[in-house]
Specification:
Layout (H helix, E strand, L loop, with lengths): L1 H9 L1 H30 L3 H28 L5 H15 L1 H16 L7 E4 L2 E8 L3 E7 L8 E9 L8 E3 L6 E10 L5 H33 L10 E6 L4 E10 L3 H17 L31
């Protein structure tokens, strides 16, 4: 032990260099440890790459500060360096920190829970899992028409709950309004057409209408929102080509496509029973034949 003390006293510069190398190796060890930790904990390739690069950049900045401080001796309190390193690390990992904060916010405020259908950051789907960093969704829409699954499972950072709106299809009120248009030809029995559409809608949607009324009343009592019509409604618009019937109705958020199919099919069958008293309209294009043009090349031309 005395030998090392004598060596330090005899060669202070050598000891200073050794201390400097030990500090540098310690910083490199911390950087590599953080990079490996992030590689294990962050499955998203883009976020993981950016986080690792951020740690690496912050590490190099800290090394530069240590070199300046060590050889100039202007700051002797090493805790300042640790504070700077911690602040830089927090700035670099802000996405990860926001994700963890987002998971706490989702849990406490109940923004959504597994089983809800939501749209967030332009992605729509059913929530199948919420962990400390990511929300996992079964995607719907995109290239698939209507609200059908695409088969893709999407992992989305929980930080997005702070960055934009979250559309929830099922929280508090698991019904949505839907509508479609029916073109009816001019000259049809309009009153008969109205009765067919409304009667069919009420019979088909009676269960949804009855179940939604009680839940809608609860929503009206909970939020500052005006009461709305949950029974099927019909609006008529006169166009240049036909009379447009717009049917608006309420439906279970997971059965929108099936319900629209059932309504179209039943209305079609009822219209077919009217013996052309009600006729569905369509866009018709009539192509007129171009008349024949005869040219007599044998007739002389007077000049």
């Amino acid at each position: 032990m005395e030998y090392f003390e004598n060596l330090i006293n005899e060669y202070p510069f050598l000891w200073s260099i050794m201390k400097f190398l030990i500090i540098i190796l310690f910083v490199f060890f911390i950087i590599n440890y953080l990079r490996k930790y992030l590689k294990k904990k962050i499955p998203n390739l883009t976020v993981r790459y950016k986080s690792q690069k951020g740690v690496e950049i912050i590490g190099y900045i800290v090394l530069l500060i240590i070199i300046i401080i060590y050889f100039t001796g202007t700051i002797k309190d090493f805790t300042v360096i640790i504070g700077l390193f911690t602040a830089g690390l927090a700035f670099t990992l802000q996405e990860l920190i926001l994700s963890i904060a987002g998971s706490v916010y989702i849990f406490l405020v109940k923004v959504y829970t597994p089983g809800d259908r939501i749209e967030i950051n332009g992605i729509k789907g059913d929530v199948i899992d919420v962990d400390s960093i990511y929300t996992t969704m079964m995607e719907i829409g995109q290239w698939v028409n209507s609200d059908n699954y695409t088969g893709r499972i999407v992992k989305l950072s929980n930080a997005f709950v702070f960055k934009g709106p979250v559309y929830n299809y099922s929280q508090d009120f698991p019904f949505i309004w839907d509508e479609f248009n029916l073109p009816i030809r001019y000259g049809s029995n309009i009153d008969l057409a109205k009765s067919i559409i409304i009667k069919t809608a009420r019979e088909t949607l009676s269960e949804y209408t009855m179940n939604s009324k009680a839940q809608w009343n609860a929503v009206v009592n909970k939020y500052y929102i005006e009461d709305a019509q949950v029974d099927p409604t019909l609006a008529i618009t006169l166009t240049d080509n036909w009379i447009q019937f717009n049917l608006r109705y309420i439906v279970d958020f997971k059965k929108r496509r099936l319900t629209k199919h059932v309504l179209h099919d039943k209305i079609r069958k009822e219209i077919e029973k009217t013996n052309d008293a009600v006729i569905l309209a369509s866009t018709t294009l009539e192509v007129i034949k171009i008349p024949d043009v005869k040219i007599d090349l044998k007739t002389p031309i007077n000049t």
